[in-house]
Fold:
Amino acid sequence: MARSIIYMGLVLVVIGLALRYAPWAMKWFGNLPGDIRFKSGNGHVYIPVTSMIVVSIVLTIAINLFRR
Structure:
């Protein structure tokens, strides 16, 4: 279990560095077709359906690779 936590920490560090030093690389995330946005008056609602499907697929692949 310790090894899994270390790997997850390393992945978070890599993602953090990418967001800090290359924000242009992640601009596509959150603006995919299928992400729902409602704007009305003073408020807005954002439902990232497609983005969460992408996150789910990536996490499923990563977890399956680490378990084998």
User: Anything to note?
Assistant: The chain has one domain: 2-67. Helices lie at 2-21, 49-67. The first strand starts at residue 36 and ends at 40.
